[in-house]
Amino acid sequence: MNIKNQIPNLFTLGNLFCGFLSIGYAANHQYTNAAVLILIGMMLDSMDGRIARMLHAETPLGKELDSLADIVTFGVAPSFLVYYTIFFNNGLLGLAISGLFPLFGAYRLARFNTAPEDESSTHFTGVPITAAGGILALLTLFNNQIPSIVTTVIFTALSFLMVSKLKIPSLKEVPLPKYGTIVTIFLGALLVIVNIESYGRFPYLIYIATPIYIIYVAYWFIKVKGNKGKG
């Protein structure tokens, strides 16, 4: 076994485990924790691919594992979260409607995995499941401030946008710091705003994952600046 090739897979498995924990927290009515775990999954998902390219450790196994993790963390977990916070009053009908999201997400992932390499590297066809799941997590995180009808409409729209033919530019070639810094600042502000009176209610993983992600972004920022200085 090549240990170097397994390093990106550890981040992917961490993403998958966040999805599993999110479902558990949602089932126990800890919706804030469930939403935050999906966001942590997004952090890990943004790291595994870049680390694989950095280590020259991209493998077919890693690609398949990434898709399996994505369908759990950004498909199944958000749909359960929306069910428990929005659709639970509708009983089995609400559960069935919630199940549409991971179905559309799975189809979107399968279509992405079978798309020509040159096409998938320049743009996405349909909204990526990672973005869709993250949006649902944010909506449920601020569920008390957002009307249920708004979440319902966005949930329905995202389900269909994932399998649409909409062309969305890929950001794979964009240097990480520009977008990673924005994500990091957002997560830091999120902790201050949401957690200021409820320290300890979030899963403790957030207090580990956020500093690690900040260090990761700082490393890439320094690396990009260094490469520009040499040029």
Automatic annotation (TrEMBL):
Its EC number is 2.7.8.8. Its main location: membrane. Pfam families: CDP-OH_P_transf. The chain crosses the membrane at residues 7-25, 92-110, 122-140, 146-164, 176-196, 202-222. Keywords: Lipid biosynthesis, Lipid metabolism, Membrane, Phospholipid biosynthesis, Phospholipid metabolism, Transferase, Transmembrane, Transmembrane helix. It comes from the Bacteria. It is a multi-pass membrane protein. It is found in: Endomembrane system. It catalyses: a CDP-1,2-diacyl-sn-glycerol + L-serine = a 1,2-diacyl-sn-glycero-3-phospho-L-serine + CMP + H(+). GO terms for molecular function: CDP-diacylglycerol-serine O-phosphatidyltransferase activity. It is an enzyme of class 2 (transferase). Belongs to the CDP-alcohol phosphatidyltransferase class-I family. PANTHER family: CDP-DIACYLGLYCEROL--GLYCEROL-3-PHOSPHATE 3-PHOSPHATIDYLTRANSFERASE-RELATED, CDP-DIACYLGLYCEROL--SERINE O-PHOSPHATIDYLTRANSFERASE. This is CDP-diacylglycerol--serine O-phosphatidyltransferase. It comes from Paenisporosarcina antarctica. The gene is pssA.
